[in-house]
């Protein structure tokens, strides 16, 4: 049977043959993916199974690899944001802002306080949607569809806020060097306030549906645990690491965009199992909501939404038509004739899944010489085979969704 | 910050005299170059030394410098992070362009396994001792290494996106 599924040179073929000689039971091969409805993305895992138990797994990735790093080497800096959208598409504003902050660090641009706070708000909204999807889909994978249907409408509400800010919903391409492309409309703040009123009760109810639910606890506690040492060696960051009990958060370790002004906790778990990952994400949503409220309260007066950096920030279109200086700046920016220092920059932000790093090498030209994305998903997904060893097939699905592996970020 | 650059530099210079050089503070990251032959020893030292404690490998990637002399045409860049003191460092190891190879870190950090596979996939750098050095994002049948600078992004016969039409030549763009 196995010969049909596996090429004879595959290492599992040998294992199956030897195992058969020992005790007469045949191990089997199961192809999980590439397109499987339960994996929520394109992942292939060749599983070596003994009955229902998984003995080993071999992941294959790269099904949606789009060569972003190569494309980025051939594009002017401001055209790279749309590429970052498509990495972790559940929280694209974080990726966008991370990229702009990398450029601002390179160019030495000081962003006004108000724009920084607006960025914090939109990044925390993105974190909420990211965790919301991860946790509610985890519920779906354990058989609880209701929670998902109940909170998913709030992602829609957040997308309406994005739409009001930048015009796009999923792949936002939000912001510019030094701030935002336009000021937030009163409607955006209105939508944000409505969201802050309506979402917390729903999220509370979602938590109540799961956190003390016997079935959910049975399905998740002690499923796919990982120790803190192992997690750090595997390069885990973000909620998955914090679930193992390590309180590392880029927002605190290297505050960016004025995160040091806000008061928030870093929730940590203990055993690093699926249940802890779920609880850490739940708790982080509350912290994000608190950060958004604080940012709204502390928001400086005025309507500054970008830095005064005419070399890099496109002037308003009316001025381009009537004002010589604006026309020159517009032309220079669009044609990529802006001065860029020769430097190597590493900037990290706390993405939905962990430390999202941008390593940028410039040579003074209009495009990056080398741009490397440190994608948290790519780095921690390599622990997946080890985490599902000895687990049941249904647990493997739950572990995969609790890790929140996003195919776009995995494959870049 | 408790862990000063000078402390790191002195410790490294005392243990690996001549193998570690070009120390500099580059913006917010302390960076230096190492002799590629000594990469595992130096990184293991950085990880295990009770004062340095760079226990987290944040990032590993390659860079291609086709214009450099042949023995320095590829660079492997390691970003390491000490969470106790919250200190980041960047380590660069230049390797030969003809036959790029460097020792693997996969015995030191489990995370370097896929990062090195990715670097192999895109640059063709051979990581000596890697447990499973094969392509990861590109298809197995591919023969070239696409992140090398000589690899064209798109079909070379295309004329509609020629830079000449924008008043720019290859040299000044």
From TrEMBL, chain A:
It catalyses: a quinone + NADH + 5 H(+)(in) = a quinol + NAD(+) + 4 H(+)(out). GO terms for cellular component: plasma membrane. Pfam families: Complex1_49kDa. InterPro entries: NADH_Q_OxRdtase_suD, NADH_UbQ_OxRdtase_49kDa_CS, NDH1_su_D/H, NiFe-Hase_large. Residues 141-411 form the NADH-quinone oxidoreductase subunit D domain. It is a peripheral membrane protein. Its EC number is 7.1.1.-. NDH-1 shuttles electrons from NADH, via FMN and iron-sulfur (Fe-S) centers, to quinones in the respiratory chain. The immediate electron acceptor for the enzyme in this species is believed to be ubiquinone. Couples the redox reaction to proton translocation (for every two electrons transferred, four hydrogen ions are translocated across the cytoplasmic membrane), and thus conserves the redox energy in a proton gradient. PANTHER family: NADH DEHYDROGENASE [UBIQUINONE] IRON-SULFUR PROTEIN 2, MITOCHONDRIAL, NADH-UBIQUINONE OXIDOREDUCTASE 49 KDA SUBUNIT. This is NADH-quinone oxidoreductase subunit D.
UniProtKB/TrEMBL annotation, chain B:
It is a peripheral membrane protein. Its EC number is 7.1.1.-. The gene is nuoC. Its main location: membrane. It catalyses: a quinone + NADH + 5 H(+)(in) = a quinol + NAD(+) + 4 H(+)(out). It is found in: Cell membrane. InterPro entries: NADH_DH_suC (IPR010218), NADH_quin_OxRdtase_su_C/D-like (IPR037232), NADH_UbQ_OxRdtase_30kDa_su (IPR001268), NADH_UbQ_OxRdtase_CS (IPR020396). This is NADH-quinone oxidoreductase subunit C. Pfam families: Complex1_30kDa. The keyword Transport applies. It comes from Flavobacterium glycines. NDH-1 shuttles electrons from NADH, via FMN and iron-sulfur (Fe-S) centers, to quinones in the respiratory chain. The immediate electron acceptor for the enzyme in this species is believed to be a menaquinone. Couples the redox reaction to proton translocation (for every two electrons transferred, four hydrogen ions are translocated across the cytoplasmic membrane), and thus conserves the redox energy in a proton gradient. NDH-1 is composed of 14 different subunits. Subunits NuoB, C, D, E, F, and G constitute the peripheral sector of the complex. The keyword Nucleotide-binding does not apply. Keywords: Cell membrane, Membrane, NAD, Quinone, Translocase, Transport. Residues 33-154 form the NADH:ubiquinone oxidoreductase 30kDa subunit domain. Belongs to the complex I 30 kDa subunit family. It comes from the Bacteria. One of its GO terms (cellular component) is plasma membrane. GO terms for molecular function: NADH dehydrogenase (quinone) (non-electrogenic) activity; NADH dehydrogenase (ubiquinone) activity; quinone binding.
């Amino acid at each position: 049977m196995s010969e049909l599924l596996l090429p004879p040179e595959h290492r599992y073929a040998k294992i199956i043959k030897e195992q058969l000689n020992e005790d007469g039971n045949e191990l089997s091969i199961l192809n999980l993916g590439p397109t499987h409805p339960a994996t929520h993305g394109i992942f292939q895992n060749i599983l070596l199974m003994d009955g229902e138990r998984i003995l080993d797994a071999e992941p294959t990735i790269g099904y949606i690899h789009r060569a972003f790093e190569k494309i980025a080497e051939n594009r002017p800096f401001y055209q790279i944001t749309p590429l970052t959208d498509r990495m972790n598409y559940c929280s694209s504003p974080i990726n966008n802002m991370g990229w702009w902050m990398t450029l601002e660090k390179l160019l030495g641009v000081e962003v006004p306080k108000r724009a920084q706070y607006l960025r914090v708000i939109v990044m925390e909204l993105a974190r909420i949607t990211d965790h919301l999807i991860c946790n509610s889909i985890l519920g779906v994978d354990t058989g609880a569809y209701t929670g998902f249907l109940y909170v998913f409408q709030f992602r829609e509400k957040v997308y309406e806020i994005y739409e009001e800010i930048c015009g796009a919903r999923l792949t936002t391409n939000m912001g510019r060097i030094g701030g935002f492309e336009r000021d937030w409309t009163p409607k955006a703040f209105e939508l944000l306030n409505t969201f802050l009123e309506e979402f917390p009760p729903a999220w509370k109810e979602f938590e109540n549906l799961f956190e003390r639910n016997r079935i959910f606890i049975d399905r998740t506690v002690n499923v796919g645990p990982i120790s803190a040492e192992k997690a750090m060696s595997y390069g885990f960051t973000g909620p998955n690491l914090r679930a193992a009990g390590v309180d590392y958060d880029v927002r605190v370790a290297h505050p960016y965009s004025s995160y040091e002004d806000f008061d928030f906790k870093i929730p940590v778990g203990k055993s690093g199992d699926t249940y802890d990952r779920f609880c850490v994400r739940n708790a982080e949503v509350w912290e994000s909501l608190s950060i958004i409220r604080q940012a709204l309260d502390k928001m400086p007066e005025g309507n500054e939404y970008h830095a005064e950096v005419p070399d890099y920030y496109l002037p308003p279109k009316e001025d381009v038509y009537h004002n010589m200086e604006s026309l020159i700046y517009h032309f220079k920016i669009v044609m990529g004739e802006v001065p860029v220092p020769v430097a190597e920059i590493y900037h990290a932000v706390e993405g939905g899944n962990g430390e999202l790093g941008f390593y940028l090498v410039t040579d003074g030209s209009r495009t990056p010489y080398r741009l490397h994305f440190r994608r948290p998903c790519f780095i921690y997904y390599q622990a997946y085979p080890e985490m599902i060893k000895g687990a049941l097939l249904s647990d493997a699905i739950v572990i995969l969704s609790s890790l929140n592996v996003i195919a776009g970020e995995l494959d870049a | 910050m408790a862990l000063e650059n000078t402390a790191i530099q002195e410790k490294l210079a005392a243990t690996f005299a001549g193998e570690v050089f070009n120390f500099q503070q580059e913006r917010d990251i302390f960076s230096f170059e190492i002799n590629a032959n000594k990469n595992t020893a130096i990184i293991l030292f950085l990880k295990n030394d009770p004062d340095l404690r760079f226990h987290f490998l944040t990032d590993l990637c390659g860079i291609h410098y086709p214009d450099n002399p042949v023995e320095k045409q590829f660079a492997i860049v390691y970003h390491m992070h000490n969470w106790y003191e919250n200190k980041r460092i960047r380590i660069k190891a230049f390797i030969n362009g003809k036959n790029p190879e460097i020792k693997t870190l996969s015995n030191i950090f489990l995370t370097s396994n896929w990062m090195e596979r990715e670097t192999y996939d895109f640059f063709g750098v051979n990581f000596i001792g890697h447990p499973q050095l094969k392509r990861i994002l590109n298809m197995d049948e591919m023969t070239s290494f696409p992140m090398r600078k000589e690899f064209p992004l798109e079909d070379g016969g295309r004329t509609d996106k020629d830079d000449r039409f924008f008043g720019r030549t290859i040299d000044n763009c």
